[in-house]
Amino acid sequence: MSEDAKNPDNMTPNEREQWLRDRGVHIETPSDRRRTESIFANMENIRPLSIVEQVQRLSIGTGSDGDGINFVFIPHDTSRDITTLTLPNRLVEALGPTGDVLPTYVKSYFADGKPIDGALLQDQALKQNLIGGDLDKFASAAAAETGEDSLATTKLTPSALASATASGSVETFPLVRPSSTNHNQGVYIYLDEVGQLKKLPNNLRASSLAQKCGYYPAPNFYGDVFVGRVSSKPVLHNIDIKREDILDTTKEWMVRATHENVEWQKALNEVTGRTGESQPNHAGTEGVAVHVQGNMCSYSWMQNDEEVEIIISLKKKVEDGMKVDKTSIKVDFQPRKVIVKCNNESILEVQLYSKLDVDGCTWTLDKESLVITCEKASQGEIWPRLELSG
């Protein structure tokens, strides 16, 4: 008698179970139930996948590079590898499809629930004179969270700021901006905007990358960061950048980055400058540089609500055969003074009109031009002059 013809009523329990399984019937045994219960019992101990792990999973099986946009993850922990991630095209389309979509995507990665340090928040508020800048933006966001019409920065408590940034807050730092001389391509670092207030560790590899692009001293980046690339033509959109593109210092974009940053600033000055008899309301504003013939060198300076920029031409020193590179330049930022030395020779010493936030000051060098960017301690303050005494 065949198995199909056998009467199920005459089968043993094991034979009946196998007979049903052979015909596609799912049977849950006591051992199956115990295994399932064990899995669910342990699920509470399984941490949620990070955004990096989610992207890596989505990247599996995507095939060629054309299936998504590559970008880079740089952990603050130097024992962890720098990795290339892929944002699949279906997500690019959903988030964009034009514009830089990476800030929107990585935003949730920075929603880590870590507390805001109250002492650091107070210190930043004092530096910014209790108004303006990012703190004012966060105050508005916190006000929206609480339903209040307005919320003064003085009321911006750590818990309110944590609430305002609970869904993540991204800051974008330009390693190099798109221009006609770099194929209209820019490279950016994306970091936690309140990483410093969370007391996240310094990301030394991200700082080193910025230094290779001409930023001196190296900016501080807090916590894990991402690096992405965009093209501004024909419309702004993300393009690939991989791990090797930021580790190999011979890559064209990195070799040219310092020069591109200086040229970008010069172009910005030209675009925003005024001509003819029209004059800015305040010295150094609206893109109109103030030229100064100092005792040791000539320089120009400009300002906006947040920064003061000093540009020193080193053309004559280069023509005289003097060594001019990042090892020969030293810029000392003090709260009320900037001192510049070239080959241990002082070329500029300025006693400033008002205070600086020295942690936000940096400089870039491109052969014959030294560009010094000073962050004002009191953002929103326009200085009537650069130096303390007119």
Automatic annotation (TrEMBL):
Q: What keywords does the record list, in alphabetical order? A: Cytoplasm
Major site of localization recorded for this protein: cytoplasm
Q: Residue limits of the CS domain?
A: 294-387
PROSITE patterns the UniProt entry points to: CS (PS51203)
Compositional bias (Basic and acidic residues): 14-28
The record's annotation in InterPro entries points to: CS_dom, HSP20-like_chaperone, NudC_fam
Concerning SUPFAM superfamilies, the annotation shows: HSP20-like chaperones (SSF49764)
In this chain, the stretch annotated as Disordered covers: 1-28
Query: Which subcellular locations apply to this protein?
Result: Cytoplasm
Q: Name one GO cellular component term.
A: cytoplasm
Q: Which Pfam families match?
A: CS
Is Cytoplasm found in the keyword set?
yes
Which PANTHER family has this protein been placed in? NUCLEAR MIGRATION PROTEIN NUDC (PTHR12356:SF3), NUCLEAR MOVEMENT PROTEIN NUDC (PTHR12356)
Q: What is this protein called?
A: CS domain-containing protein
